[in-house]
Specification:
Blueprint (H helix, E strand, L loop, with lengths): L1 H17 L1 H9 L13 H17 L2 H17 L1 H14 L21 H14 L3 H10 L2 H8 L3 E3 L3 E4 L5 E3 L2 E3 L1 E3 H28 L5 E6 L3 E6 L8 E10 L2 E10 L4 E5 L5 H17 L9 H13 L2 H24 L3 H4 L3 H15 L6 H14 L1
Antiparallel strand pairs: 1-2, 2-5, 3-4, 6-7, 7-8, 8-9, 9-10
């Protein structure tokens, strides 16, 4: 876990050095007026994991397994954990973070699952150069454990955890409906505790590090100077002096902690979610336009496509159509360069979805002659 902890530590520092104002916004994680402990699920997550840790080390046998599985499942469920990691990646890459980084689209008539959020996060982590964090999720998160535990679809012996009404867990290439807790589960819980402890300390230390006010460059949304507000208790928000004119006089704006009412509150600002979404989609499009290909996972990109289709903005549709063709072309070139004919036969199934979606999305605004020709060649190749 040393490499993973080192990468998370570096990610905090890199984001702060790149754009300190956006780093502070990520720490505040503002979604609306509310008490610090109640306006985010992060603080309850911190407290609950600490509570489960105490019980985990106190008990043994079945009791240890039950508490350990609760700790394991709770750790992977926290949405703000993923939002913060993803936002720090985006800030490091030169973009803005978001409290709603992996928000659902109308395509999903439910909140996104944790596995989906991890899938969305993978490409960001790869872009930010954090392979050890990706490896941590791949080696330690098994949805079958979380799902069976929360749905009471499991049973326990003194040594084994048995799954019911579940797909198997693949261990060393073999599907299993049970596993030894000492050999398989407990080591993963220990890994999770190490990552949790490191993340909690980094977040808390970052928050507490702001003991005095500090002026920084900011985009909110236009270029300006912002005062990061510090105190003996740490970060207390930010203020932009004389930012708005109200009733003939200039007033400060920003987000800061109201000591009297003990809550975070926005002052003289308007959170225009439609405008925020426009900014975030533009940045996401730009990020993908600057990438030669999608290297790890296209879930985040497909979520971006869904959002753009919902919005029906012609400029966004034009840009995303170009991206669909671009990523299809990139895979086609890899297929052509592949010397193994058996491996070549696997390429059409990962190329065609991009080309077909490009035709579906943008055929009314873009010439698809070449794309349609490529689709026909790939379909013939498969037949």
């Amino acid at each position: 876990m040393k490499e993973t902890i080192a990468e998370i530590t570096a990610l905090f520092e890199e984001a702060k050095q790149k754009r300190e104002f956006d780093f502070v916004l990520t720490l505040i994680n503002y979604k609306g007026i509310g008490a610090k402990e109640l306006s985010t699920n992060l603080h309850e997550w911190f407290e609950s994991i600490e509570f489960y840790k105490g019980l985990y080390y106190k008990y043994s046998k079945k009791e240890k397994t039950r508490v350990g599985t609760m700790l394991y499942s709770t750790f992977f469920e926290n949405s703000d954990f993923y939002n913060i990691l993803g936002s720090l990646c985006k800030i490091k890459l030169g973009y803005k973070g978001s409290s709603y980084l992996f928000w659902k689209t109308k395509k999903y008539e439910r909140l996104l699952g944790i596995g989906e959020k991890q899938d969305f996060l993978v490409e960001l982590l790869d872009d930010a150069g954090k392979p050890a964090i990706i490896s941590f999720f791949e080696k330690n998160h098994f949805k079958q454990i979380r799902n069976t535990f929360f749905h009471s679809a499991y049973s326990l012996s003194e040594e084994d955890y048995i799954l019911h009404d579940s797909e198997p867990i693949v261990i060393n290439g073999v599907g299993n409906y049970s596993f030894n807790v000492e050999e398989f589960l407990y080591p993963k819980i220990e890994n999770i505790i190490q990552i949790f402890d490191a993340f909690q300390k980094l977040y808390s230390d970052s928050f507490k590090s702001y003991q005095v006010d500090k002026e920084v460059d900011a985009l909110f949304p236009n270029p300006c100077k912002a005062i990061i507000l510090g105190s003996k208790d740490g970060l207390r928000g930010f203020k932009i002096k004389k930012a708005v004119s109200l009733f003939g006089r200039f007033c400060d704006s920003g987000i800061w902690y109201d000591e009297k009412h003990q809550m975070w509150a926005g002052h003289n600002i308007r959170i225009d979610f439609a405008n925020i979404e426009t900014i975030e989609i533009n940045e996401s499009l730009t990020r993908y336009e600057n990438k030669a290909d999608i290297t790890r996972n296209d879930w985040e990109f497909q979520n971006l496509v869904d959002k753009i289709l919902e919005r029906k903005d012609a400029k966004e549709i034009f840009r995303v159509t170009h991206l669909l063709v671009k990523f299809g072309d990139a895979r086609l070139q890899k297929m052509i360069a592949e010397g193994n004919s058996f491996k070549q036969r696997n390429f059409p199934k990962i190329i065609l979805p991009f080309y077909r979606q490009a035709v579906e999305v943008g055929s009314h605004i873009m010439d698809m002659t070449t794309v349609m020709r490529n689709i026909k060649k790939l379909e013939d190749f498969m037949s």
